[in-house]
Amino acid sequence: MATCEIDADVLQVFKKFKMAKDPKPSALIFRIDKDAHRFVIADEIIDISLEKLQEELSTSTPRYIVYVTKYTHQDGRISYPIVFIYYMPKGISPALAMTYSANKEKLFRALELGTPWISYIWKQ
């Protein structure tokens, strides 16, 4: 099973997405190009709720999603947390599931999103 590469242009699109001024709830959706062994951007959706995003996702294809939304803290501060979502629908081929599973942390680290919480828990 090959690991995937991430091109500079994909990272550039992510950086622009991440640095948007006063962003609306938005999703940047990644997929794997199996032939080229590369991460590619499948879609960018602006102004979408998590509920609507869930309806938009295919039930037959895994995806990696970066979601950003506005969050107002109790003290009035505003932040824009970025969430990495690994979407794996039931019933897909084992080979496809393994490819996506094997590459999720590589994409997460390439996007420099921090420490995956699951890895953090395992290290304790």
From TrEMBL:
One Gene Ontology term, aspect cellular component: cortical actin cytoskeleton
Residue stretches in coiled coil: none
GO molecular function, a single term: actin binding
SUPFAM superfamilies: Actin depolymerizing proteins
Domain ADF-H, chain residue ranges per copy: 1-124
Record-level GO BP terms: actin filament debranching; negative regulation of Arp2/3 complex-mediated actin nucleation
Superkingdom field: Eukaryota
InterPro entries: ADF-H, ADF-H/Gelsolin-like_dom_sf, GMF
UniProt similarity note: Belongs to the actin-binding proteins ADF family. GMF subfamily.
Protein name: Putative actin binding protein
Organism: Heterostelium pallidum (strain ATCC 26659 / Pp 5 / PN500)
